Amino acid sequence: xxxxxxxxxxxxxxIAFLEVLDAVGVVLDADNQVIDQSSLAVQxxxxxxxxxxxxxxxxxxxxxxxxxxxxxxxLNFSKNLRSVKQxxxxxxxxxSEELVIVLVEDVTEAKRLExxxxxxxxxxxxxxxxxxxxxxxxxxxxQVAVDDPEQxxxxxxxxxxxxxxxxxxxxxxxELSRIQxxxxxxxxxxxxxxxxxxxxxxxxxxxxxxxxxxxxFDASSDISVMGDASLLTMAIKNLIENAVLYSESSSQVGIxxxxxxxxxxIQVIDNGIGISVDQQERIFERFYRVDPSRxxxxxxxxxxLSIVKHAANNHGGEVTVFSRVGVGSxxxxxxxxxxxxxxxxxx
Length: 347
Ligand code: ADP
Prior knowledge:
The chain has 347 residues and is α+β, with helices and mostly antiparallel strands. The protein is built from 11 helices and 14 strands. The site of adenosine-5'-diphosphate has 23 residues, from helix 7 and helix 10.
């Protein structure tokens, strides 16, 4: 066999093997010209005009040639300037004197999950430290104030507040990590949204009464979605509680339930303090609070909206906000409407 034919054969054998494994690979000759590539490599856009499109991948190949050994690296990759950036794990290995095979794995999602997890753990540790050290200081103070009933009552009250805060933080962290893992708690069932809103209002009623806020909801619409009723109720409750907490006492909170095409919209409207545009982008992040000192008073954890966002995402929906400082906020939870059974089943 002529040398060039032999090279082509080795390359196509290697690629045929990768195709069986559904793997992404490219074989290059001594001039870094692509001899063969797997179909997934084409889909990913690794090759154009017979060359690797990524300068980082070409460098990896050169490094493998120079060092005469297999080199593996995590690299950023995007098909072109406009497409989404991916993180890839790439390995360049010498197949022969001239031939190098580049194996690529898209690890974007794994990397994102890993970063999210790291971030989450760091945030949690930080957030738990505050009430834990407060509790520890307060118990010391209690011991010192044992003969002073007034001080004793004061410290005991603070201790109760901090432990309540710790409890709510822990339960919200558990809820959030469960939702983030995509683990819907209950059955996926047909949920009557009016019913869920009524339940969420019920759960928020005590808080609203204690702050003299009136909640208005006209439960006349008949809209259903498919979902986890307890999770959706929790998400709606979080929105209502925020509307109550960030409003003046004796104000009103309105809840609307409407349809918009294929989506149902639950709107929670308040005339409270509002949120500036630059903060609106951040409030759905975990542990983010616009005013941490006010949040301490309201017992805020910065997790409520993050839970709403993940619950919405898990149901194929979204949550959006429209707000003006000093005027008020409207949070809208959009969820895909449950189609009639007859629509789902072809005749
Ligand atoms: P928190 O437990 O602190 O309320 P959330 O995740 O529910 O945490 O909300 C994040 C931040 O968004 C809050 O700290 C608050 O600053 C702001 N926010 C949420 N809802 C409202 C609202 N209805 N009006 C004004 N600010 C709000």
